[in-house]
Amino acid sequence: MAKIGKRLKSAYEGVDREKFYELVEAVKIVKGAAKAKFDESLEIAMNLGVDPRHADQMVRGVVELPHGTGKTVRVAVFAKADKAEEAKAAGADIVGAEELMEMIQQGKMDFDRCIATPDMMGLVGRVGKILGPRGLMPNPKLGTVTADVAGAVKSAKAGQVQFRVEKAGIVHAGIGKVSFDEGKLVENVRAFVDAIQKAKPSGAKGTYVQKISLSSTMGPGLKIAPGSVAG
To answer: Does the keyword Ribonucleoprotein apply (predicted)?
Structure first.
């Protein structure tokens, strides 16, 4: 069994791991327990009553957090001509077509989000086996295959979060920094949970949201009373 370090052991002091905390109280505790030497992220994990092996139980989507994530997001865009210029003007970090495809083939992937115009998907498909496993493959359902590249770039830079349920039925995401004030973190949590609720698949049976927990990057996890998350 893994040994708990002194810092984490100290963070767990005063935390009841079996209690279901009210959201506002939980955020306050998580902020107070974040003692790392860097600005930790607020992490949310949700256990859902779905089996993503079935297509009608997949949960996937995007949410624009009201206060962003606090992270710097590097964006790559597959586009040409006017659309390439629009992407650059909107703040894209890397813009190109064949040259961007070649960069990816060479393993040069210094970006966190990949966007493409519809006419570029033939090129993108040639590096799909590289982008896909990294969660970077442009997808129209996520708004990353679009003619509105400027809007997509701005949304990504502003703190748009993509989510996808894992094999065990868990959705996990970073939804802010512990340096944010409590009110902003609470609003980000509610926006994320609301997006998951709206993404409920047709094949989900029984209790959809089974468990919600919050933690900082290096801190203890707290169970959240689902009723306290509703705005």
So the answer is: yes
